[in-house]
Each structure stands twice: as C-alpha cells, then as structure tokens.
Design brief:
The protein is α/β, with parallel strands linked by helices. It folds into 2 domains: 30-200 and 383-431, D-Maltodextrin-Binding Protein, domain 2 (3-Layer(aba) Sandwich), CATH 3.40.190; 204-376 and 510-575, Periplasmic binding protein-like II (D-Maltodextrin-Binding Protein, domain 2, 3-Layer(aba) Sandwich). The protein has 23 helices and 16 strands. It has a 4-stranded mixed β-sheet, sandwiched between helices. Residues 30-56 have a biased composition (Low complexity).
Length: 576
Amino acid sequence: MRKRIFSTGISAVLIGSMLLTACGGNSSGGSSSSAGAAGETSTAATGDSSAAAESADPFGKYDPPINMTFARTVDNDLNDNILPKTPGETIDSNRWLDLYSDELGIDISYAWTVRGGLNDDAYTQKLNVTIASGDLPDVLIVNRTQLKQLAESDMIADMTEFYDQYASELTREVYNSEGPGILQSATFDGHLMAVPYADASVESTHYLWIRQDWLDKLQLDPPKTMQDLLNIADAFTTRDPDGNGKDDTYAMAVTKDLYSGAMGTEGFFAGYHSYPNMWVKTDDGTLAWGSVLPETKDALKALADMYAAGELDPEFGIKDGAKVAETIAAGKVGIDFGEQWNPMYPLISNYQNDPEADWVGYPIVSADDTLPKVPQKFRTQWYYAVRKDYENPEAVVKLINMHLEKNWGEDNDFNHYYMPVENGAVGVWKFSPVAPAPTNKNLEAFNEIEKARKLGDMSILEGEPAVIQTNLEAYYNGDTTQWGWDKIYGENGVFHALNGYIENGQVMREEFVGAPTPTMVDKQSSLKTMELEMFVRIIMGDVSIDEFDKFVENWNALGGADMTAEVNEWYQSVKN
C-alpha cells in the first residue's frame, strides 16, 4: 500500500504552530466547527442520525447509477493547454468522469459551461441569471455572497447530516487543517449549507523576493531588518545595479492595487506590524479592520518616503500588475513582495531576458526588534451548493472523498489523476467538477523533497513530490523553463522561509471567515475604493500622511464602524 501523500504528522505540526484548534481528535468523527450563528456541524447537531452514520459508506457505489448535473467554467489552461495534451478526452468525457461513474455510480453532465475562471464576469453573470431563474443544476459552485442568498432563499440542501455521515477520514483532515474556519465559512445558524471548495490560506503568505545578483554586485548582504531593506532600496535606485550607466532602476515593484499576490505591499506593511485588507484580532480581543489601525500609518509613511526618494516607479499609481510585470521583465526592479509562486510569474520573465537575473526569496523583515507576524488571508471563497430537492445530496461529498483519495490518499494514483508526466505534467485534475486539495500540500511536498535530498535518495519520492523533483532535475539538466520550480522547491527554495515562519510562531490568520454582513454587502466595496485611493495618494505625496487620521474617521462614519460591530457580533457567536 502506498503511503498517504497528505502527511498528518506535518499537518499537526503546522496546526500546533499556528495555534489552531486541534480537530483531528474529535471523538464524534465530524467537523469541529463552532456553535452559535456559525454553528457546530457535528453528528450530534443533526438529531438521531447515528445509525445512519454507521451504515454510510464514503465510497459506496450507487446501483443503479445516479445522474448529477453541474455548471462549470473552462479556463484558458484547460482549453488551451490541458485538452490539446490529452487526446481523446473532452470536458464531457474524461478520466475523472469515467472514474466517478465506474467507482461511485455517479454519472456527471453539465447544465452549462462558460469560458473563463470562477472570478470572471462571464461566470458571475451566468450564475446570477441561473439563480434568479430558480432553475438550478444539481450542484453549483458559488461564492459566499451567493451562498448566503441561496441559503436565505431556502433553495439549497442542508449538508450538515450528509457531511457528518459521508466525509472520509482524509476529507475531514483536509477540512479541519485550518481549524474550524473552512467549514465555519459555509455554516449558517448551525447548519452547513454547502461543502467548501477548500483552498489554502498558507498560499497567501508573502515573501521578500530580491535580486541576489544585484546584492552581490553591490556587495550587500541580504536584509535582516527593515532598515537593511531600506538601505538596499536606496542602493538599487542610486548605484546602477544593472550596470548600464543610466539612472533607470527602481527598488521595489508595486501595483496600483497595493494588495496583491505579486508586486504587493502586504509583506512590507507587516514589517511595521500593520495588516491591512484583513480582519485581525486586537489587544483587547476584538476584531478590527487592519487598514485603519495606527501601525498602518507608519508603513504608509515609509512607503511615501521611498516614493519621494525615487525608489518606487513614479507611475505605480496607474499601473496594474501586467504593466508592473513589464518593468520586472525589463530588469528595472530588484525587490518584490509576493507569494511563493512569483518565480513562475512575473519573475521568470526577467530571467528569460537576462539569465544572470537571480531572484531569491527571503523572510519578510521587521522595523523593530519584534519579529513581524506574517498575514495569511482566508482563501476558501467557493462552495459546492446542492439544489434543495436533489435526491442524493450526499453524492457531492463522495465526489470530494474520491478526488482527495485518488490524488493524496493511501491508494493514490497521482500521476494519472493530477499531473500525468506522459501528458506533459498538465493539471488534469481540472477535468473534475470538484477539486479541493490538502491545504498544506505544497509545503509538505517541499519537506518530502528536502528529506530525500538529505538522504541522498530521490527514489523514495512519490506522487506530487516526485513530479516536482522531475521538474527540478529538468532544470538542472538545462531546461531553463523550469527555473521557477528551483526557486520554490530547490535547495535554496522559498519554502525554507515558510518553515521558519511556522517555527517562529509568526503566522497570523485572518479572523473573520463568515458570510458578508449586511453592511459589507452595502458598503464594503465603496469603503475599499476609498481606502485604496487614499493610500495611493498618501504614498505619492498628493496628500499629507496626516490625512490618514481623517480617512479613519470617514471610514468609520461611512459604514466601517457598523461593519466592525457586525463582524464582532459574528465573532462572539463563534466563540460562545
């Protein structure tokens, strides 16, 4: 029997280090989501269901088979990359749909498909029209706002009982891996109203990406403190790091949107103990919007000073990520705060244009003697909602069980169902209409590779770590298209920094995971726009840093105070 790729031992360390609730020992075998408004989705909450739970089979096959309809997206990767490399397979006929039919007796078809991703307007518009019509497919993938609408309209099934009875051991491990938050986010008045499309909050972690070749040329050490970083920023701007004799380099890549997985500012703000654009716990135990706390003013002042010194692109306030990526590709920037995937985009474009460009990921740094907390935004944003009158709502739980088991379970077939090497290691998992994954799988893959490196035996690798190692070896053998894999998973890969964050207790998870509150629905969009516009104006020197105080007053008066009260009402209901 193959070992399980999803390592419960490593997950337990992660959970303990992040001060999360230890859910694995829940004697009921169910979720340990909290009670109250976000309620506990345990078997006890579903009444007399223990007998049914004993007979429920997480992988039981329907005989005769059942039909299940979905609505889904077809993104560019699936249409332009995966389908051409998997001849004979289509959206409607492929290895995943065959698996679900053969092993579970679930025949899947699509009520409709739309090109693009879940976040694209095309899907949002088609989904909203479908919801308004009341003519729903059996399963819809919806966001939190749409989930709340469907739940309040009594259009979807209560999944509490079905999750408790049918979720496999591995499914429970995945859905409890961030504490109660994942299940909690789909729970209304104690009822689990959808099964979340579990996503990894750990992947929102920011790192400090720096051009190591510029550091070496200017004889600078990697930064240990914020002052070190500011000194490096000055050098990257004034000491001609690209050696062309021109004053044409900037220190740090920043987009007009400020908050971003690449070319963002979250890691910089964290260096001043500021955590904007997320709900954080304050010293008095209540939740607050990080953008309006005093530390944010300090970080904005530092960014404004950098802008005034020419260390940021003077046009950053009008440049989106694509435009800033062009500056990186041209070799004009040497610092980037972003997530682990940044070497895949946009940093590789710099390397492709200049093979000497050597980007290395470092931990974020602090402006004082206290290690910065590292913010992790709650990433689970989509949910599998089942039409209320569908005869077999538990079937969606079985699909999730099977998807996780075939990719990361003890009897996994990762190479066939996730990234088949014979098909160019494309992500055939996208053929599946359900696609949750272990939230810590990437870090665990890195740690497995590290273990094999130390043992000097790569043959022990299986599943995803083995596929990643294949990409690493391709790079070492001259395939420069695999450069990004080395920057993430190689001997000096950025996941070393993530392990350090965890060991040092630096991780800070977003505290609010509930459905949008009434004021959020009405006011949050305009408040975020006001925040972004004010912060950009402060950084660019259009207004004084003291305008931050007026912004906080206006934010509270225009709905922020009400929103904060609603968030804390939710928080108290979860705690009690």
